[in-house]
Write a structure and sequence with these properties.
Carbamate kinase; two-stranded antiparallel ribbon; globular
Length: 240
């Protein structure tokens, strides 16, 4: 089976793991996501995954921590829990996976080293990146862009609950305009919210293609890997 990408970085929100509950973990949703990852690997694609922590702890919104640094650290720890949940689900489904964390927790997960992650990927093992960048003030979107570049991914796949990029929230606004294709500068200038500005700037400066798809449809990732037009594409301007 011929795919258009050899190695991808899949970015999932923490909320994606919660399903319709909005918090915690939904076993069925975890199994669906794990099935997507396994299908991609079985197609010959190397898969890295970055997961947010919003289903457990959303740092910037929390009132528990006294200041931003502590809040962000709590959020990074939440991503470790999510990574372990996905790893456990993959293992229950018969597929081994490796978790790397930017936070040093050697008794729990391995500390991130790009060359080691690439070695696992080249042996067809899914790799899950946790702990954010290891530093406060950076989102998991930025983590996804950074890890995608570090593992030399062909594309960053942003998984969402809608069908791609719109000019406003299509759930709230029925007249929202869908963008099948756009460039990085459009995303930044129109503040389209694909990812935060730091993440988009990293992708732009390194010509990393971004695909935005609806992860609720279990066939979307497979279709994207086979070259079908799914969701939205963010890439350099054609006239550049």
């Amino acid at each position: 089976m011929t795919t258009v990408y050899r190695r991808i970085l899949l970015k999932l929100s923490g909320e994606a793991l919660a399903g319709e509950k909005g918090f915690g973990f939904d076993p069925g949703t975890l199994e669906t996501i794990a099935s997507n990852v396994i299908d991609a690997v079985d197609m010959g694609v190397q898969v890295g995954v970055v997961i947010g922590g919003g289903n457990i702890f959303r740092g910037m919104d929390a009132k528990i921590a006294s200041e931003r640094v502590s809040a962000d650290q709590m959020g990074m720890l939440a991503t470790v829990m999510n990574a372990l949940a996905l790893k456990g689900t993959l293992e229950k489904m018969g597929r081994s996976a490796q978790v790397f964390s930017a936070l040093e927790i050697p008794r729990v997960v391995e500390t991130f080293v790009a060359s080691k992650a690439i070695d696992h990927l080249e042996r067809s093992k899914p790799v899950i990146f946790a702990g954010g960048t290891g530093c406060p003030f950076f989102t998991t979107d930025t983590t996804a862009a950074l890890r995608a570049l570090e593992i030399q991914a062909d594309v960053l796949v942003k998984a969402t609950k809608v069908n791609g990029v719109y000019d406003k929230d299509p759930v709230k606004f029925p007249d929202a305009v869908f963008y099948p294709e756009l460039d990085y500068d459009q995303v930044l200038s129109q503040k389209l919210g694909v990812m935060d500005s730091t993440a988009i700037s990293l992708c732009r400066d390194n010509d990393l293609e971004v695909r935005v798809i609806n992860i609720k449809d279990p066939e979307n990732l497979r279709r994207l890997l086979l070259g079908e037009q799914v969701g939205s594409t963010v890439r350099p301007r054609r006239d550049m």
